[in-house]
Amino acid sequence: MAHAATLDIRNLGKLYPVSGEPKPVLENISLSIKPGEFVSIVGASGCGKSTLLRLIIGLEQDYQGEIVLDGQRIIGTSLNRGIVFQEHRLFPWLTVEQNVGLGLLNSDQSPAQRKKAIQEHIDLVGLKGFETAYPYQLSGGMGQRVAIARALVNRPEVLLLDEPFGALDALTRNYLQQELQRIWEQEGITMILVTHDVEEAVYLGDRIVVMQPRPGRIKRIVDVPLARPRDRGSYEFAAIKEDVLQEFGDGKLAADLSVRRPDPVSAGEWHFAW
User: Where does the ABC transporter domain start and stop, copy by copy (predicted)?
Assistant: First the structure.
């Protein structure tokens, strides 16, 4: 099991030049994430969610404030932080085990240790028997599971997920959300999920960070004190989802962040299928 990290974001700000003028994208972001916590970040397009992940992963250094992992300021990319994007980004000429093995390119493990780690993580994501398959032989959901295995094979302290299921069909999304929860519980690492899907955020997160745009700021943090596995059809689940959706008003933004909004009176009878 990997070591779970504490992540502290302190007074974070980020500017991008637009037409020669600096434009704030993130402003005064402060957030502390406990070891092994699963945090969901939701917000409309343009609120800086993906920019925040890019800064945490270390792809950009030009920002104000601090991002601190286990007491050390983040500088550049590192094996202690993994990331999964919306597209699986597998190399089509490599097999499943070879794609997963790319996550160990900078590892100091022996060949035998690498082989064992690759097989363990293929098994972890439920793809035993597909080791020699190529990406074109996999479904979209299977491809994303390979990407998750590749991100975890180094046993990072933090796994970042940027809309990992956004391009998948509804039933596959639902299934992979359950699988991601199982993997998180088994691995015990800190996970941060960026999503437009409020139901996904409630299903997976210990807390939900609600962001507002232009510039991106934390509007509110919502606790999700529900036992796992979570019942999407329960009144308590629907009430938290509705509470988060209310942060986006009653118009287009709320519609963009939810496929359908339950009637609180009959929420107990709802069975959400994504």
Answer: 7-238
